[in-house]
Here is the input.
Amino acid sequence: MARQGRVVITGVSTHWGTELARTLERHPGVGQIIGIDTSAPDADLGMTEFVEADIRNPVISRILPGLEPDVVVHCGILWYPEKDRPSRALHDINVIGTLQLLAACEKIEGLRALVVRGSAAIYGSSPSAPSFFTEDMARHYPLRTRFQRDIGELEGYFDNFARRHPAITCCMLRFQTEIGPGLDNPLIRYLTLPVIPTQMGWDPRLQPLHSADATGALAAATMNPVRGAVNVAPDGAISLSRLLRLCGKPAVGVPPLISGPILKRLGDFLGSADLQDDGRLLLRYGRGCDNRRLREEVGYELAFDAEGAARDFATKESGIQSLFPAPHPGSPVRSVGRREGPG
Amino acid sequence: MNSADLALEWASVVQSSSERLVRRMAGEYHEDEWGFDEEFAEAAFPIFEFLYRSWWRVQVEGMKNVPGHGRALLVSNHAGSVFPFDATMIGTAIQKEHPLPRWSKALVLNWAFDLPFVSYFIRRIGGVAANPANLTRLLEQDQPVMVFPEGVKGFGKPFSERYRLQRFGRGGFVEVALETGAPIIPVAVVGSEEIYPKLGESSALAKIIGAPYVPITPTFPWLGPLGLLPLPSRWRIEFLEPIDLSGYGPGASEDRSLVFDLSEQVRETIQDALYKGLVERGPAYF
Here is the structure.
């Protein structure tokens, strides 16, 4: 079994930082977990030591080496504003924070691995894109949106760091958008609206990543980091229209002339901030990622494919009531569910 | 069949289609990872079947050259300035005439995926954005894939240039075939180049809507939507002898001159078959 002695998690108070700490606490291969963030996590993490520090502050270069970590996991990259982190601070947190963190990592003696929880948004969404991006394709497509440029910039620093420190295994994880019961993010808020506005004439292919797999893959990469970028995406893909039908949500196509202002207002309402443009393009052209590196090199077995994640979300999420409920077995509508068999 | 039987049959048709509708509204149907929706393709099939049988009276040769299983790269000429129907007709031919019918994917010009409605319609019936990564992945999944290496140059050529094959891109399809060991099956489609005789094009309109070109035909755009109706030419689709590339071994795809030679060989094979096919078919419309 893979063993990692001391693991430092930056951004431990974010949802994914806390979830990672919780998972690693149960992992026999982990010696000690230290969490760094500007405020203490909401959840009670019994075995995680908390250090209050801001990664944007150069002080981090003195604190981090003192903790003597074997692995640093950076969960502090934000896609949308969270508690205590307004949208205007996102660029600072994502880019400057990562830069400071990398500077601090240079000073750590005996650091074995650096794992960054990044985003598949770096690939963008476009009509000419491959249906499944592989990790080497990120550089072939222009960085259009602000969030994409931020991710591109910090990945640039990260690559540079990896080149200069061949002894450290540097792993950049590119996550597709997460979905799951009980989760809160702009996509979930979008899917739980009573009526869902979509862009008329568009039906993107999406790869919702189940929250259990999001945490599982992050923990797996912490225990067994590989060099370079790794896509974290489910098998398969699901179109938005089918996702909405599984959730039992009525979709309303918004015609192109008025969709701009409407979607902008919607974005403000959902709190997606920097994701506004990314979200608009994603919900138009979709995005698919190849996950072979995750499965074969990191060795993580995904529990849910794209459809499974959507189904799990639709059945467990409270507040989603189907307008078109699937008929029960034995109802007059006979063929339902028969064609695909169990599961 | 008496009227009661007929009524019963209709009732069952209505019931099964309403069942399907209810099931689909609940999201209970299958899509593959490319967004291909088999049920949707089946529902759209009668339209293509009508065009195939009655409108274009398609005659098929050499179906034995299409493998019933495993990867296969179907390379065809490309035509039909307003809407290239050739991909749908090749697919329909395989569905109708092959002893082991299966759905094939087609690589479609990226511009089509930037069009509302069209983009998802094409995707649901088996269209995939044209790029080497998609082609490689599809062939590795042992699917039959249609490619049209002439691209826009092919289906946008004027009527006077019909059946004169354009340059075959950069030979990217040969590279992928060499890498994946997929056999190349050249396909010569006769008839597709007469469905929308392109007499000219409007570059101003093309600039406005961002299209590669906007064709002008005897009926389009003069008759409005009616001008979109393709002319009922007589079609002949010929599947030619497969070209086996598996003997070249790994690394052959790096050899530019080999790639160009093979690409040119495929092009000439199709060009010859087109000339012969034109004679075989006879008059274009009647």
